[in-house]
Amino acid sequence: MKQKGFTLIELLVVIAIIGVLASVVLASLNSARSKGADAAVKANLASTRAQAEILYDTNGGYGVDATPTAFALGVCAQTADTIFADATLWGQVNGADTAGGGLASCMSTVTGSGSWAVGVQLKQNATTEAWCVDSSGQAKKETLDGTPIQAELDALITDGTVAKCD
């Protein structure tokens, strides 16, 4: 008597193979998602530089009017009368923060011609990397010590008085 169909062992082997292949594909997708998030951070912050220069040309400084207020170093916020009050620029900073690894730091100064900088923790290597852009045109990857905290990210975007990438 000849039976049609598969044995239980054959079915279990096929299911195991499908499971292994699915885990490999999912691991690759997670890596691609993280890389995509990092690209979003970099693109948003690149747009931030362009918008800040438009504000500089329009207002003669990095702010939303001719007499802007400095933004104290720290967690990014859409604070009135600072460069970060501009809706377009704030949307770009907020977009980078949302796509990134969870930490963002902003600073702007108004002395002289002013300066600004934004640093955002990257997602793919969240414990060791952040992306920084500033008013001098820099856009670069910064290295974190492996246990990122807000104070560490803050230190990367200032020399104490001027907002700039380290």
Automatic annotation (TrEMBL):
<dbReference type="GO" id="GO:0015627">
    <property type="term" value="C:type II protein secretion system complex"/>
</dbReference>
<keyword id="KW-1133">Transmembrane helix</keyword>
<keyword id="KW-0488">Methylation</keyword>
<keyword id="KW-0812">Transmembrane</keyword>
<dbReference type="InterPro" id="IPR002416">
    <property type="entry name" value="T2SS_protein-GspH"/>
</dbReference>
<keyword id="KW-0472">Membrane</keyword>
<dbReference type="GO" id="GO:0016020">
    <property type="term" value="C:membrane"/>
</dbReference>
<dbReference type="InterPro" id="IPR045584">
    <property type="entry name" value="Pilin-like"/>
</dbReference>
<feature type="transmembrane region" description="Helical">
    <location>
        <begin position="6"/>
        <end position="29"/>
    </location>
</feature>
<dbReference type="Pfam" id="PF07963">
    <property type="entry name" value="N_methyl"/>
</dbReference>
<dbReference type="GO" id="GO:0015628">
    <property type="term" value="P:protein secretion by the type II secretion system"/>
</dbReference>
<protein>
    <recommendedName>
        <fullName>Type II secretion system protein GspG C-terminal domain-containing protein</fullName>
    </recommendedName>
</protein>
<dbReference type="InterPro" id="IPR012902">
    <property type="entry name" value="N_methyl_site"/>
</dbReference>
